[in-house]
């Protein structure tokens, strides 16, 4: 190395300035040999992971650009394998006191060029989200299209369609118990609206049991291509209302999963007299709440008729031509109470299972002593979960419950959390974990416990399925999702924290709820949203020394100061806005996965002390 530097200095003196840069670049191939080889290995591994994801989620007719991309990836991967095989042979020549500089130059240059090709392929793959697997749109649903043919649904759809065409009605609601298929029907109707151009714009927002006004405003605005700049909810409401009134087109706004009366003025929705050409459609489990909002037409959606429920079950279970199981299938379908969500999840869980599993499932359903329709649905989904034979699939499913309702869950988060918690057996690296998780996710989708997300590398959960998952997670694994400060206080008073393994805080204000407590078994802590509080002390982690996964989705200055006590941490996600965040990170000797988001992404020298680091993910945020 010293010889090469000396040669470079001599050349720089003797040649014209115009040639210094080109020659320096060539000398860089010599001096940067190890780095160029390392970079190529890492980028090829990333490309391999990306191709695994794309291949797994591209089905049916595929855009030519993707097919061409896949062919290019196969080509560069083959060249990469050949390159490293040759490089291993050539290395034997380097294990001498006089390494061959020409061979070193040639390999380094080739590695650099191949790396640039790989980076270009990775960049092109960023545009495949909508092409490879379109994000969930208003016309898609988790229940098979077969349900559209049922006569009990046709009359309801026709009734809703006539109401949508009635210019004298500006607000309607579709009401029915959870899991009956309200959202599915709405999305099917939207497809017809778009085909027949009944409205110019259709927008949808999920309200949920704990409405997030700012998110509802943003969702509606995005469908209308309105930009709400102000963070203040009141000002945003004014901007949204004015934008809707001035839009000048026929607009259908769908508010899905409404649990209680909404303040339309607070959201920014025009009053009845201002809705010229506008219509609002609600889906809700409670008709009384819709009446409070002055819904002008309420349409009740009932459960499937018995023969419809039985047909759907047999189709989903794949036993249409298996006479031996028909009687048992009929009994199980009847136990599902005509609820599509329960029918589909249980049927999918029994698909390709033996007779003993079918008989045991029927017996469990008959012995269920839960009362009430909502509890009935709960027990059916819980049974679908228990039908999963793979414990890793169960853990992956429960991990999804730690995220907010209707959240577009990145599969990569499941990979990183799962690695930190050691959920996957016989997995030696991130690539193997990623492949395993995508396989588990596919299994969960086939069981209808997970839905397609917005993009091929994301998933979603039906809100009722998530409720069941949260309950199972808290009971079986001591994984707790806390969605309000009141719930956190109640949980503290009951000493629920003493045995918990995971805590996910999803509410906006964390005062001193994490202070002065011992969490002797806590392995995962996720803090979501803009919930920083000056009440959090610098030693907040003192009682969490067994923590394996820490994920912060916003900047918490006080939470960055005492990271050094987390000596068992394996997965860490931070959001940082100053250059002093990493002074204690060198103490995290077991850290394997580090994800940093923010504006001041200077890497501190202490990162060099992280000898077990397997993945470093830097994501820059604009100021």
UniProtKB/TrEMBL annotation:
MF (Gene Ontology): ADP binding; ATP binding
Name of the protein in its database record: NB-ARC domain-containing protein
Membership in a protein family: Belongs to the disease resistance NB-LRR family.
Entry keyword NAD: no
Entry keywords, A to Z: ATP-binding, Coiled coil, Leucine-rich repeat, Nucleotide-binding, Plant defense, Repeat
Residue span(s) of domain NB-ARC: 154-318
Gene Ontology biological-process entries: defense response
Domain of life according to the entry: Eukaryota
InterPro entries: Apaf_helical, LRR_dom_sf, NB-ARC, P-loop_NTPase, Plant_NBS-LRR, WH-like_DNA-bd_sf
Coiled-coil spans in chain: 30-57
Pfam family, one: NB-ARC
